Every structure is written in C-alpha cells, then in structure tokens.
Amino acid sequence: MLMKGKGILPKHDLSNRIVIRLSDHRMVTLNKICTLADWEDPDLYNMMLEIFPLNPPFHPFHISNFEPYDKPVMHRKIWEWAIGMLALRKLGKLNRNSLALGIGCGSELPSFYLSNIVKYVFCTDLYPVGEKSNWLEANRDMLTHPEKYSPIEFNRRRLGVQVMDGRAIAFEDNTFDIVFSYSSIEHFGSKDEVSRTMQEIYRVLKPGGVASITTEIMVSGNYDQLKGLRDEALASSQNSIMLEIFTPEEVEKYIISTADFRLHNKVDYNVSDSRGIIKFPDEAAKVPHIFLEYKDILWGSLHLAMTKKGSNLEEVWSRLGTGFDLL
Asked: Does domain 2-317 sit in CATH 3.40.50.150?
C-alpha cells in the first residue's frame, strides 16, 4: 500500500534518474568526511536527487534561510542519507530480497525511501510512548502515522516502526542485510555504549550484511581543548555536543574495531575543502551547512560502510581489485 507523505508528492521514477555532471570530481571512497566538493560527484549528486525531492513542501532540517532551489540543498544531512544509500547500492543491497533495520532513525527520510526498494524496513528509535513530551526527531506519532513525516510517497506495508534501544536490539542474530544509522549513535551515552551498539549491529547483520553509519567527527582543533569542554560538561551534568564528537582515533577504537567488520577502503579523515562552516549554535539553521565550529573546534559528518565477514562478498572484492569499484 503506497502512502503519500505530508507533501503529497508523486512517487520517484527510479528508472529515469536525472544525470547531471557538475565537474570531473569523484570521491575516491565512501568512508569519508562530508565536504562541499562531494556535491560535484555525479553518483552522489544523482542519489541526492533520487532520494530527496527538490523544493519539498516541508523541510526536515529546520533551515532558516531556506529558499527554492534547483539542486540538492547543501546540508550535511542530505549528504549522510545519499552517501549511505549509494554505499548500499554499490554493495548490492538495494533489492527486494533485503531486510533493513534503522537504528535511532526517528522520522528521517531513509526509512521511507527504502520501503520502496527493499523487502521490509524496521524503523526503530526511543519514541516517547506515554510521555507528555515529544522529541523533535522522534515524535510518537511516527509509530501510528508515519505519513505525517515523509516528503515522498512510500510503501506502508513494507515499513514497520518500533520502540527499540540500539544498545539492545530485539532481533535474532544474523537477521538483516542492512543496518543503517545516521547521526544517532553518538547520542547513546558514553563511548563504551557506542561500542555496545556497534556490537549489537554486528550481531543482527547477516554474514555479508552491510552497516551504513554516520556520526560526528572532529576535523580540526586542539584535542586538549575538546577534552576540557567534555570535562566541563560532565562536571556540570549537562548535555553537550562536545561529548558526542569523535576523534579519528576514537572512531577506530569505539566504532570500527569493536567487532569483526570489514572496510573495503581505509577511512579518509583528510579534508581539503573546508567551505560551508557555520557557527554553532547561532547559525545551526543556516545553509550551506557542512561543518560546525564552536570555540575553535571544527566538526562535521563521517560516513562508514562496513560489512560483516563470513560471506562470498570478500571473494567478489578480491576479483574487483582495490579500486573504488564498491567503496
């Protein structure tokens, strides 16, 4: 059963994608930090157009200076969704045989998009059932009326919405072909809790299944200053974005190395294009929105595509070589 989202937009014609090449720029890996130059990569640009409508009747990023546009808005959230879906496509997971699980996915677009492509999508988050308050990103109405939050038409019969904690996933081992989580795992508590979540994601993935993850990554700044801001937040028992930002070393320790994941390419932590910096929190609702800056700490979005070992996918990779055939 196809349901129209709040915007009453027509279903995307996935067989007739718009192809626009802005330049010869191509990403060399999908395990990377978001930069404005990535909008010039034709594969990523086309995926942005495929998953997210131009000029939607409501905008999920709460942008204050939003104006009608004729190309994908330059916001890192669209990048996160598009690079995640592109990775899943390149790894052969966007098909009617795939089962997908979203962790901490609130009411974000990927769940709706995937419902039109895969066998079934389980969208999970800590939706506040029975509570008086609602979270902006995880409204309880998503459980019963997901159409309120989708800017695209989606398949309601292939989308299930459940209350679930990503640190204790209530599914059997080796269940899913896809697990996705975009800018969520950093909210799960300590870095050890993030590791626990990654172990759970690994457990429920089938051998050869793919985890597509984005999180906050420190791009530049002094680590001692970041540690000082973290200590201040902990001492005052306050929530702070500084507690949610990973350094590259922390990504390796708490996300990648916590289970026996395979990365086809090494993660590229280098940033050669620093355009799109906004001051946090005063300019958080402005675009371009690529990097955030607070007290000389600069951070942005990092995407990781990781495969659970134990399938013939590694043999396929070895035949393809070490280039950017998949990731």
From this structure: yes
